[in-house]
Amino acid sequence: MKEKKVIIGSVSQEQIDAWKEKYGDLWELTVIDQDEIPHSCYLKKPSRKSIGYASVGSKTNPMKFNEILLKECWLGGDEDIKTDDDLFLAAAGQLADLIQIKEATLVKL
User: Fold this and answer.
1) Handedness of CA 84, 85, 89, 95 (dihedral sign)
2) 2 assigned to some structural domain
3) What's the longest Cα–Cα distance across the chain?
4) The CATH number of the domain where 44 resides is what?
């Protein structure tokens, strides 16, 4: 029988449903560490204010954008993703996907 791998930071389906009800869009970000152990966290859609705050922080430190965005969107999960450099850097590569830009057109009249 195949054993199910424990995901560090996972939450119940009830918690996920409650977050979806409150925040709408929700993402689970999973990082696999060097020991092949998965670590997960749950993120909400960033607000315009959060993106602006992260952008200002990145002017002096490029990694600050990811740190701020992760903090602002964080709902729960394994705190090691925020503090362990290897886990954070792996997660940082996915954070830009939280910002979903819709198509727009501009027509001069």
Assistant:
1) positive
2) no
3) 67
4) 3.30.2220.10
